[in-house]
Amino acid sequence: MARGNPGQQNKTAEPSRLLLEIFGTFGKLSRTEASATIQLILLSPHWLDRIKNTVCNRRQHPYVCVKGIFQSNNEDYKMGNSYAGQLKTTRFEEVLHNSIEASLRSNNLVPRPVFSQLYLEAEHQLISNLEACKRPGTEEEEEDDGSESSSPLIPYQMKPPPEGCCTTDGFCQAGKDLRLVSMSNEQIEVPSGFLLIGAKSPNLPEHLLVCAVDKRFLPDDNGRNALLGFSGNCVGCGEKGFRYFTEFSNHINLKLITQPKKQKHLKYYLIKNAQGSLTKGPLICWKGTEGRTQQSSSSSTSSILSQPPESPASSTTVASADYVAGNNQNALTGLLQTGAPTDQAVSRAVIGASASQINRESARHHSTVKTNTISFQNMARPSVIGNLANSGPPKKRHRGWSPDSSSAIETLSIQSNPTAQTLGSKAVADIAELACMTQSSLLGSISSPLPTSEEPVVVPDNLLKICRTRPVIFKGHGNLPYLCGNLNDIVVSPMLQNCYRNTQTFPRAYEQHSTSVTTVLSVEMQILLTVYYLAQLAPDQVPLIEDLEHILVRAWQESNLTETKQYQQAVSHSVPYVSSSMLAVTPKQLTWLAKLAASSCKNVVRILDSASSLVEGLTETFKLLSEGKLLGKNFVVIICVTKNQSTESCVVVTGKRQAGFLAERMLSPKDHLKEINYELVTGKVGALGAFFSSLCPEGDIDTLLEKYSLAKNGQGSSLTTSFKKFDDSTTQRPAICSVSNKGTCQIHPVQLAVARKLLSHVCAIADSSTQNLDLGSFEKVDFLILVPPSEVAYQQTMLRVKQSGILVELGLETECTANQCAEQYVMKLTAEAQGKFEGFQQRALKSPYTLFILIHDHAHWDLTSGGMFSQSEPFLGLADRIVNCKEIKEALNVLTLQVTSFPYVLQTQQTYISPYNEIHWPSSCNSEVNLYHENNKYFGLSDFIDSTYSGHKLPLLRYDSSFEAMVTAVEERFPKMHSAVIWTYILIQHYSAAMMVTAGHSQMKNYSSVETLEIVQSLTNSTRNCPNNHGYMVLLRIPSISLAALAYERLCQVRHRLGLQHRFEIILGTPNTKINISQHFLTQLKNWQKIEDPDWKPETYLDLEDLPCILILSGADPYGESFPRSAKYYDLRLINSTCLLRTALEQELGLAACYVIPETSGQTMIVNDLSESDLDKPGSTDDDEDSVAIEVTTVADSGKNSNNKRQRSYSNQSASSRSSKTSSFLCDSDPFSPSGAEDSARHPLNAEPVNIGDGGGTREKPKLRSDSVQQKPNHEAQYSEKYRINLDQSDNNKSSQRTSKTFSVSSSIQTSILEQMSSQCPRTKAASQPPTVFLPKLIYEIVTKVDSSGVAKLSSFLPHHSVNWVTSFHPSLAKMMTSTEQSLYYRQWTVAKQNHMDFNKAQNRTEIFHPRRLLLNGPPQVGKTGAYLQFLSILSRMLIRLMEVDVYDEEEINLSECLLCSPEPKEGFSLQQKESLPWPDLESFSKLSFDYTVHDPKYEDASPVYSRDLVNNKGYKANKKEDDIYLRRQTTRMRLSKYAAYNTYHHCEQCHEYMGFNPRCQPYDATLHAFTFSCSMLGEEVQLHFIIPKSKEQNFIFSQPGRQLESMRLPLLTDKNPDCVKSPVFTPTTGRHEHGLFNLYHAMDGANHLHVLVIKEYEMAVYKKYWPNHIMLVLPSIFNNSGVGAAHFLIKELSYHNLELERNRQEELGSKPQDVWPFIVIADDSCVMWNSLNTDVSKNATSAPAEPNTLERNVSLKYVLQHIEATAEISHYALCGVRKWSSKITNLHFVEPFSRCHLHDFLLLNVDLTQNVQYNQNRFTCDDVDFNLRVHSAGLLICRFNSFSVMKKQIAIGGHRTFHIKSKVPDAPMSISPSQYICAPDSKHTFLAAPAQLLLEKYLQHTSNHLFPLSVRNYSHPVLSVDCYLNLGQEITVCFVSSRPHSLNINTSGLTFSGLLLYLCDSFVTANILKKFHFLKGATLCVICQDRSSLRQTVVRLELEDEWQFRLRDEFQTANSQEDKPLFFLTGRHV
Questions:
Q1: Which residues of 1671-1798 form beta strands (DSSP E)?
Q2: Of 370, 1136, 1600, 1676, whose CB count within 10 A is highest?
Q3: What are 1450-1474's pLDDT values in tens digits?
């Protein structure tokens, strides 16, 4: 409720009492009505008498009375320009009417305090935001206020449109198009005073409707002053004069179901872009959040206006609070998401005439309601007015409202809760209950009092001069009073208030607790904790809002968790529960406790207890400041307890360092640079120069330099002499100078591991079921690398691309053009380079078979959304426009890889990157174990921090306290000057003074810090120890380009005047410029690197290796440049200390990361802190080079500091804090000095170890560190710290005892060590140790500080200014979190801001992670570029690997030696050789003899087939393999040709229809057909099943009535079709549904063919799934356990039966039966490619045969089959086939183009001629050899075309490997020897689960050496096998003989056999046939039958007992059970 003027406060109670008496006695007025009316008039008690008289005298209703009084006395009750605000008549009447009516309609007893609306209305909440987030589907619709009311919505009925008019959405009733997309380029006449507005239609959410509206009825930029009503025109038909928005909405066809409101549907201003097109502009601010300026007195106003802004800081200091709030972890948490109000702009009086323009611009960039955000400018601009929170009701008629209804609570929740958008109504109700608990526990608009009419606080004049700083006023609780007067001398910050608001957020994590237990921190507790925090700060320490917020959150968590536990215990034990609110700090206790806390802080905090208001406290503070009574006080905390017992507070920061830091922290980085440039342009830096000139006793530094320059040009100086002496001493030292190895890029093991991880993630994407990436369809890899707009980073990336050779390896460029074209593959993110991306995009669209990799390197640099276009920085947002380009995101052949060292900027709730697509750089060491066998160790941020902990070594991370002390002193003298200018200027002076000290002006030593002296002297003296003048680099980081240019100019001037221009170079490194160095140093670099190119110039910082130089690196952020290992010092003292973001700090510290060679153990003596530059330190110029002290450090006492585990070393601080004499001997080398060198890159590609010391041993890293280092007295320090050698003597038995001793060594040892150390080349020393880094003290403390759990403080900062914490209650990072866990942490607890590139994803709720986007993250300078270039390499190789296959490459076996050496044509073959016919001549071919020998290398371990050639060649003395069936066969890799056969993983557009993936065909609409025929061999009918897809039914004949399958179509012999293959192809397969090569589309070259897969019944479903468009022949279930013989048998039987059916059908059609094509193709499922061999045999003049010219090329299967099918009289051939491919082509192929021999794997079978020769359906192995022998014995021709070969792919699964022999007993051992495959009949042998035939074949193969002992390697006496061929092992020869009449058999006359094998003999085998053969004595007989009865009958029938002896124990069976039908065999001996 609003408070009146102070003089009126005491009168408030009296009117209340009187009114209750008046209205209580009125009979018709209920208590509710009375209370409502009372609420309306309490504001002005002087109205009471008039209302009282009216009510009592007229007896009228109070509502009527009040209304009548106000209407009749408008002029009397207009409120002037008072503090309370301005109350206008129209506005007053509207609010009054609505509020009284709503109050009377409400059922609530508490009246509605609506008068608060009539005042300033500053900062009031958009209640609709909460409603909008309740209904995510309607974000565009602005919800009605007061939605929690119980009043029902009244449905709105629109007026029906006139007949005949247009009712189409987007068109007006006249039929004119009003959509913005249609009218964007139309010329629209807009009347004067009208604006073009975009209206939203609920039926067209994606469109805006254009209309013209009178701007008087629209709000101003602050959301105010819009006239009630409406006036608009239709821009479509031109109709004008619409006076009601209801009428207008009907005209433009909005078709609303609710009452039309202009606030709801007029959404956007329409503006014209640069092209003149009409586009959507800013959102119309219907509900503004800006407060009105106070205009209480014209005098104060004029005094304010009279003060112009002194500098841009006047407007930017406070206008940038949005950035501050974003930077302070949670300063604006939730405000961007919920639209929570903060203070707006500085008063117009403060910012002058430009304020209105600023406000207008900021309002126009107001965020859309859709995202429920308010712009940065409108949200967080600080204000000296204060926070005028409004707790009034929403402006909605006919709705009830009361303070305890949810409307008021929604205001609180939106203001303070960033998660309010996701809270439901229950959560809102819970917050409402929470709000009603206690008045003092709430913050913000509910508990804050309304503005009062107190006088404003006048800021005194000359405040800045008095205080020497601009005090910062932190707004706290309550409303800050108005400030006027000298406002330029103060800064108002909302950071503390935002911190309080953030910590009031109701966290989701505690929603499950009862709201009666879970409370927010009270205002008093927040103030008290703030005082405690400020009191514990050191006098020179600055406060961090992040720390305070952490304290508040921890306090809340601890109190509530404890309270919750107590509450639960109380409930369970039924004991009284005392809430913590009862134990909370009361307002009266607060002041006492705060003063008590402040009393212990050395008076840096002052507590002011203001009894009245904050006005009194601030006035008192300014008075004390003016009187100088607050000297030494850094903070003034003002606490005020108002009369309504609410607590208000604010904090005034008066400390000079603290106030300056906080004021600058409110500036964004851009504002920082603007302020710096302003001060440089206006010449304010000149005051600094004058100040420093007055400090120097001998005059200005420039004067000294001028004197020195004149002296040098005249008679010379002592410096010249010293330099000459210096150069002479250089030549006397031994030259130890390593050679730089700058060669090609070397890939290290860890980089290769990361590249493989990347590849595995890509493969995982391809293997997923989402089909987002089809790697099998890509043939090559292309790429484009995006880098930040830095010329050096661009050239650096191009250099690595060139060195890697990736362009040549990927086939993108040739070796000649690779270096010239490398720039096409690297793109700077600048607007000018966008053409490269367009070219990349075009290549991606035109090359669907190329996989394009878009690499976004340094991805954290530009996170700006593409919509945030800036004319000043056009490159911002370019990364978003490229990476998130719609075409790139949707392209299936583009993969995006984002590479960064700081992944958490991309790991938000809105990220596009799946957590499964993140690749984290692995740690190379785990538990001190080198995982990747690296020769070097990465030295990163954690290692630098470790070096700061106590020990005897000097830390690598330091700060310069003397430098900062001087900065503090100068800042006090120049409080208005930006600190960056002061810091830079002082550092320039320090460097200048240090250079003068080097030149001999020792008196200037006091004008520089020891650290700067160390840097400069190390730089200038580094070249003396190297004959090549190698030196160190010093990197000086100056973020401001302007200041960097100033420093460069000044240092160059000083260097030139001192004559040092040839000693070291000074280089200015800016992002957009190339490296420029002088000719002298350019020549040196060319000589060092042996470069002869006269035009060569260094393009990267790596090219500056060994160059002594100061590199001034400028730019707001580092861009990923790498630096040489010669960089010894990284001076980061000038980095921005106010930008406390994790990314900003880590990327600055990451500049110094590098690789070092790890130390090796084994040497007890370690030379440390001893270097040549020790001689050059300031102290060494006094010629006190006495004896050297060597310090022996044994194991120190570990018990001295047991409580202090990690104590800082004394050397962490500035050396200036100790004696300058001691500091002058700081070591030049590094404590972690490894013993190796590195090349010019950060990653030591060619590191060379360098031994240190006489013994050549390397340095050893001490295992134990001294916990404390005692400072020696000054005289001792001069002696012992000068040069010291640390000896670590670690004794395990005495580890608890540590002592320190100092002893001297002999001069000889001293001299040798000094000469050895000082003679090192700077390259060797720099490469063997990490650099030293200097930081600002604040950053140093942040980096090195850890909390109680061991977590670094740096990790708790906000990751980036483009992201926000979800809530302040996020948990902290854990110490041992992995990279994956950190990723999940940031994904859960951070959200993207509106300017983040991922923010748009949040708006599209249906969009999920991008499937083809990867994130690679690794530490800075770790080698990520090399890793992703290696990834491109192995990815390309993998794609090539996918295009390659392993094919068997084995030379044919069993070739005769004579044929291999000097081949001669066989008999009858000369004609073929002479004529070289492509087809065999039947007559000549018939004369060829059959080659019984098996030449296929897969049968190398099989039994040779007996022939005369075998005997003559003594068994073909080939190199037989060992008897190991698992020995890997020889293969070779072959690239797939365009005629290859593929498996199911191949997908290309050409064969989609063939595979059944074309949507036009229905692949799964296949039918199952039965096909039955009789088989004489099986003695029964066989029923097979065909699965025939609809697309293949034309290949079959179906009966018409029932569509029963009748036959498969066969062509005629006379058919001639070049696009057709006649022979059906049958492919038997098992276990290879994925890997079988059944895709013959490319192999057949697109020709029509018939392909049938022959599968087993149990595999039918899986084969049908993978090959839905293939014809399948399903074998009967009885063949499920059969081998390949059964499949071949049924294929042949089916084909012959089908041939008969087709002959009958063709005969009916008039064709001859013999003309039907009789051939089928039986092909293995691993045949992948086919080749053709062309030979050209020529003769020379001597008629000697020359070497044949061979040409082997890939041909299609279509070509091979058509060629064979074209053979003359082909029907006379039984089998035709091709040879097995081999890379070694023998002479046989040239001499014999056709062979009559065995055929395997791929053959054409004449089913007509081979009718009586069947495959053995029982066979598992060697069935093709057996079939070939029986076909030949039947007198049929077998022809092999030697000019064709087939390649067989190695497939590791399926096929014969599907048969596993295992026991039926579960507990039996897994391995079963072949001897266990058989057993004695009727024995209790363990039965095996395997077919009997398989057991028999395997047994004979592996144990026949024991079964046929006389046959082992006895090629002259083979084993006789009748009618079959069985494999008896490679050492036993088998002679095949057929028993069929008229069969062709080998001549066996005179041949004696060593054994006889009878396998399932039929009736053709008789005793007379067997008696024709002769056997050796003791020969073995083996008779095999299906049962024991048949076995005995066979012995009797064949009269075997006459010549063979049998024993009962010689009868065996296969180890099968009876149900598995075992085979039996009997053995005997010949007698």
A1: 1671-1674, 1719-1723, 1727-1736, 1749-1755, 1773-1780, 1794-1795
A2: 1136
A3: 988 888 755 545 444 444 444 444 4
